[in-house]
């Protein structure tokens, strides 16, 4: 089997390519240059896994171009990496994925939609930089709202299950971690793993600078912070657990992910 992974050179894509390699599937990581001739880039693939770039200004257009290229290249199996709670009109980048999901479902291809929660790994840069005497996990949104934070490696392993076993065509799977956690809970788990004090703190989103992002991207992320302030991003644990059980593994709790990836920094 040969899977073309769009966005395969990014953070999510690299994890998916590695998970596919672990089950003996040849994966073709494709970055932005693949869009110069997408049908040619997809030619010969048995399936395409679609990951859009972060905060794409028009994700439905991006996905529509992939659907057209897949049809032209005679690739009729497609999995789409969406997000948990895509239909959230106050978060433009989620709403773009909701609209793109609809395109996928009406594409005529054999599709599966995956809706991962936020990754535990998003917190790693901040936690890896904490000084030996401890410090803060500072985020521009509430530290006491619930999230179904998920291990990116679990998301990737579940994606490999979906691509390599039957029964997933026409399915939409929300992929949440094994328990609801808060950012304060992440800080507590990090303190245990790093054996130093870690305090969660909400910073003022209006003072958040969003280095390296343009004005639209900053505005979209501020909308997400406002949503997180009010609601977090809760998800259920069962679909991911069921998919991983098919390959004899269980979703990783936040503390286990942090222990695995921060081990070298304590
Ligand atoms: N982080 C989370 O917690 C989370 C949770 C759920 C869903 N997601 C979703 O996961 C997706 C991927 O996130 P990520 O962090 O893995 O992204 P990333 O590391 O920034 O990777 C982006 C990928 O998209 C490609 N790309 C960039 N600009 C492009 C363009 N204009 N046209 C075509 N391809 C382009 C990049 O290729 P090059 O190497 O050529 O630049 C790279 O392969 C996003 O849609 C995000 O919303 C993230």
From TrEMBL:
Pfam families reported in the protein's UniProt record: NmrA
Residues annotated as transmembrane: none
InterPro entries referenced in this protein's UniProt entry, alphabetically: Ergot_Alk_Oxidoreductase (IPR051604), NAD(P)-bd_dom_sf (IPR036291), NmrA-like (IPR008030)
Source domain of life: Bacteria
Residues covered by the NmrA-like domain: 38-233
Stated name of the protein: NAD(P)H-binding protein
Organism for this UniProt entry: Nocardioides marmotae
Lineage, broadest ranks: Bacteria, Bacillati, Actinomycetota, Actinomycetes, Propionibacteriales
């Amino acid at each position: 089997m040969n899977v073309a992974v769009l966005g395969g050179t990014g953070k999510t894509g690299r994890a998916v390519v590695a998970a596919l390699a672990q089950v003996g599937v040849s994966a073709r990581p494709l970055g932005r240059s693949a869009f110069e001739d997408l049908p040619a880039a997809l030619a010969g693939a048995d399936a395409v896994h679609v990951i859009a770039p972060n905060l794409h200004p028009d994700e439905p257009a991006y996905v529509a171009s992939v659907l057209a290229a897949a049809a032209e290249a005679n690739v009729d199996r497609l999995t789409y990496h969406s997000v948990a709670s895509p239909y959230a009109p106050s978060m433009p980048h989620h709403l773009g994925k909701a609209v793109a999901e609809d395109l996928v479902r009406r594409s005529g291809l054999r599709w599966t939609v995956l809706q991962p929660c936020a990754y535990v790994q998003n917190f790693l840069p901040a936690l890896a930089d904490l000084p030996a005497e401890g410090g803060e996990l500072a985020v521009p949104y509430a530290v006491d709202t619930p999230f179904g934070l998920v291990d990116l490696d679990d998301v990737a392993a579940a994606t490999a299950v979906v691509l390599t076993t039957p029964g997933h065509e026409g399915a939409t799977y929300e992929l949440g971690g094994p328990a609801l956690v808060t950012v304060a809970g992440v800080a507590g788990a990090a303190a245990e793993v790093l054996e130093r004090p870690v305090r969660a703190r909400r910073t003022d989103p209006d003072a958040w600078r969003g280095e390296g992002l343009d004005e639209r991207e900053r505005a979209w992320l501020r909308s997400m912070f406002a949503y997180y302030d009010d609601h977090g991003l809760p998800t259920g644990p069962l679909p991911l657990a069921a998919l991983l059980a098919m390959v004899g593994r269980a979703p990783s709790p936040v503390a286990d992910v942090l222990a695995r990836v921060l081990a070298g920094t304590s």
